[in-house]
């Protein structure tokens, strides 16, 4: 050994003790118990995850509500359009029936006039 090798070095760190805690749980690595700071930190992280999940669920709910309302408006517009088209169809059908009835009467009158001329 040389003179530089004989200096006092700190001992190598030992492996931390293993605990049966789950990953992300607030367990103190020194003695395997939960410290107040770790518990508060875990609680905060849990609340943030819950809040994030709640925010996502809220956003999804709002998006579904907006889409539902949009579809309701589209359905109302389509119903209104279909009702208008049906009403116009009834009007046009009634008009064509009137025109056809007048045509039939005119044809009968013409046939009668032709018969009178013979």
Give a quick precis of the structure.
The chain is an all-alpha fold and 118 residues long.
Would you give an account of this structure?
- This protein has 118 residues and is mainly α.
- The protein has 1 helix and no strands.
- The protein has one helix at 36-117.
- The longest helix is centred in the middle third of the chain and has 82 residues, at 36-117.
- The N and C termini lie far apart (149 Å).
- Mean pLDDT is 79; it is low at 19-28.
Blueprint (SSEs and pairs):
Blueprint: H1 36-117
Q: Write down the overall geometry.
A: rod-shaped
Number of helices: 1
Q: Low-confidence segments, ≥5 residues, pLDDT <50?
A: 19-28
- State which percent range the strand residues make up: under 5%
Rg, alpha carbons: 45 Å
Q: Percent of residues in helical segments? A: 55-70%
**Mean model confidence by pLDDT:** 79
The main sheet comes to: none
Helix/strand structural class: mainly alpha
The strand count comes to 0
Q: Report the span from N to C terminus.
A: 149 Å
Give helix and strand order, one letter per element, not per position.
H
